[in-house]
Prior knowledge:
The complex is a heterodimer. By secondary structure, chain A is an all-alpha fold. Chain A is about 65% helix and about 0% strand. Chain A has one domain (about 1-140, about 215-330). Chain A has 14 helices and no strands.
Amino acid sequence: xxxxxxxxxxxxxxxxxxxxxxxxxxxxxxxxxxxxWLANHLPQKSILAFLIAGLAGIxxxxxxxxxxxxxxxxxxxxxxxGVAVTFMLATPTINPVVLLSTxxxxxxxxxxxxxxxxxxxxxxxxxxxxxxxxxEKSDLKAVKQxxxxxxxxxxxxxxxxxxxxxxxxxxxxxxxxHDHIHEDADHECSCGHSHATRKDGIFPILKxxxxxxxxxxxxxxxxxxxxxxxxxxxxTFVPREYFLALxxxxxxxxxxxxxxxxxxxxxxxxxxxxxATFRGNLSNSSIIAxxxxxxxxxxxxxxxxxxxxxxxxxxxxxxTIGLVVFIFSSISAFLF
Amino acid sequence: xxxxxISELCxxxxxxxxxxxxxxxxxxxxxxxxxxxxxxxxxxxxxVILIILFIYQQGRIFSDSVKKFKLGYFIFLIPMFxxxxxxxAGAVIFENRxxxxxxxxRPQNPAPVPETGEQSTSETAEVSEPGDSVYDRLPADEIxxxxxxxxxxxxxxxxxxxxxxxxxxxxxxxxxxxxTLFNLNEEQDGQExxxxxxxxxxxxxxxxxxxxSRMQMPCCVADAFLIGMIVRTPMxxxxxxxxxVRVKGITRLQMFKKPFEEEEKMILVLEAKEIExxxxxxxxxxxx
Lengths: 336, 288
């Protein structure tokens, strides 16, 4: 149990700083980026939006722990789900830090960082496009009609008709506590928190950032801890030899390595070093599958996504990523 | 008088608990047992953010926001429970780890590999030139007569073993275990080296083999894997997993069958000349 506890704490300590950074960025997006701004600045030709979202990882080196709260917020702000998925998948896979660590882990083979970057980008793009077709607005978790989300009668909202912020025109449909929009109102609710906009002074903005960060930390943190708990269990109690025993079949070894990446939930900046230990035992294509799938989807990311999206969306997303990574990894066998 | 908002109070308490957990790990210098030292700055940043959130949350304990108690709060108690379970994190050698039998490679500024010409498979010992490893560049008596009272004779800070005059010390002191492995020529017989680590055996090793190991941590403990060399000695069966040993020997290019591979391959193994049990080092980890 001691080993289990140490692994749990190590994954949590590794992920928490980046989750906090992600929640702060998410709060800044909430305050400084309006739906209108996003709608006006996203490329009108949607394919261009996908291409740019996929490349954002190069200038936005955020790991997979930080990207989930940011993605959730961007969807909430009106970014199309397919584009947001491309952004979420590409950023932790093709960012420079990850590619550099992959190069260090495989110093004698430049194909690994190159294929990770190239195929990572293509995978993110393909999955994003597929999810744009497969997903619906109803994939987002509906806000529950709870009394605790309804402002009381003393609220100073400009929109004080009935004081229910859960109505369709106000609801942004991702389930957290701050889904009611206050952008166009001088707002001082009696709900106890202020909702600053970029027009406000520095202190209201800071206060609002702290509030959003705190609430987002609760929303994402509980799923993070639960995910880390499962990951630590897999790391401690499931012998990795079981996975390696399946390595004789090339197709099975790719599936096995994707499963391993999913359950281990390694940081994308370090997973290449683990992948390097499998060289000689497994095919290069299955190692590429490990390097592609891990940053895009793992247990803790899946659970963090569960805070904002319905199960059917998450299952479709995982299945699509798995299928696309499987195809690209199989193709990579011809490139080594 | 304003009423206490139980929900906000609970969240304040949980934020405080997170601050205490991370603070305890930082203050008692235990972070190295969980994360690579390069991650320190991120954890310190997280601690600062949490302290700010904790202070901010204090002002919300008496707020009028209508919130019910959330069951999700209980999940945030798990880290506290785990901290008590973890105990002395520095003394634990993990099971269920990958083992790197491909030979270590220094990620930055790789050591130049001298040209060797034809690969030798000769059993004849060809003693390497002095200067192949940190140990080799030290006075002979320091290797032959190590201080028996030293708890960590490979600790660069305590013994100066790793300090080579004229060389710039790296930003994070590289463990002599790693330095020795990095400086090995993987195609050359007869390099005389000394390694200190723990014994690792599994069902793939023969009776006269064990792996002298340390756990290399690229980022966090969850990523750690075993690094070291296969040691061949008739005394191998006298040592059990996790025994700490100092092995002096000569490198040999010999056939070895890696786990899950069908054919034997030529790899560099350490033919032990002398093995002695030692006290566990301060940490089983090495970092780069």
